[in-house]
Amino acid sequence: MNDKIYVAKLGKAVGLKGHLRLFIDSDFPEQFKKGASFTTNKKLDLTIEEYNPNRDLIKFVDYDDVDTAKKLTNQFLYVSIEQTKQSCNLKDNEHFWFDIIDCEILEESKQLGKVVEIHRYPLTDYLEIKTSNDLVEQGFPKTFLVPYDMSSYILEVDIENKTIKTNKAYEILENS
Fold this sequence. Notes:
By secondary structure, this protein is α+β, with helices and mostly antiparallel strands. It folds into 2 domains: 4-87, Beta Barrel (Elongation Factor Tu (Ef-tu), domain 3), CATH 2.40.30.60; 97-174, SH3 type barrels. The protein is 15% helix and 42% strand. It contains 5 helices and 12 strands. The chain has helices spanning 66-70, 81-87, 97-100, 133-137, 169-174; strands at residues 4-14, 19-24, 37-40, 45-52, 57-60, 76-80, 104-107, 110-120, 125-131, 143-147, 154-158, 163-166. Strands 1-2-5-4-3-6 form a 6-stranded antiparallel barrel. It starts with a strand and ends with a helix. 20% of the residues are buried. It is found in: Cytoplasm. Belongs to the RimM family. Its main location: cytoplasm. It comes from Halarcobacter bivalviorum.
């Protein structure tokens, strides 16, 4: 499942015609449309027959009654990285998390570490950085967090070269 991205969870069956509650965990709800395909954590391939965003209800092709729909309850929906790139439109300075992970964090001439995870908090997202070995040997913490804030901490994101240039991230590391 390494090339798959988790996007939603299926809830309980609603009504008698095969509808399920949908809990989206993606910044791109537009990918949930008729004809879109997903894979579940139980390796099922599902195609959307209809989706009602106002009621958060979804129905899949060949799941036409409550009994067949119930078999999908609590399963997770995944899409491929390719599907994501095709169906999700990014705005300026927006990037997919899978492109940000493994980027080197650079500040002036220092290599501070590498992005290992992204944490979502109510006000902003944070990059979890695994500190570079030479800095850890100098007594710095093994990991630290940098706000994903383009106005103060993130100067430039270069997905092609897997680098992120930062401002004040070294200060955060020093005070961690």
